[in-house]
Amino acid sequence: MASSKRSDKAKSGGDRTVWREFGGDDSAALERPVPELPPNQQQIRVQASRKGRGGKTVTVITGFQLKPETLHALMKQLKAQCGAGGTVKDDTIEIQGDHAQNLVQLLVKQGYQAKVSGGKG
Length: 121
Prior knowledge:
Number of domains: 1
Shape: elongated
Strand order of the largest sheet: 3-4-2-1-5
């Protein structure tokens, strides 16, 4: 009998929040606005790196000041142009393989101020 009472409480699934600082589920109030600069005002760095990746080379693109949606769209476009996989991590784009020169050319065509940074990873 005791177990059925516990399962009834678990089934109710009510909100068990005791205290909430900002009231409702308005998480938009807690997000920081991201200033989205035009491409010609952004200083982009492209670097091939191997650190912490088990010897695999990854091209890391940093310096973006874009909204996450725009950054993901750009990442998909760059991945398709390089024919490689990739991801977005902490406002940087990582493309698998050493595509630094190709990516700089693609970004410059789109209006970004892109440069190759560092030497061979």
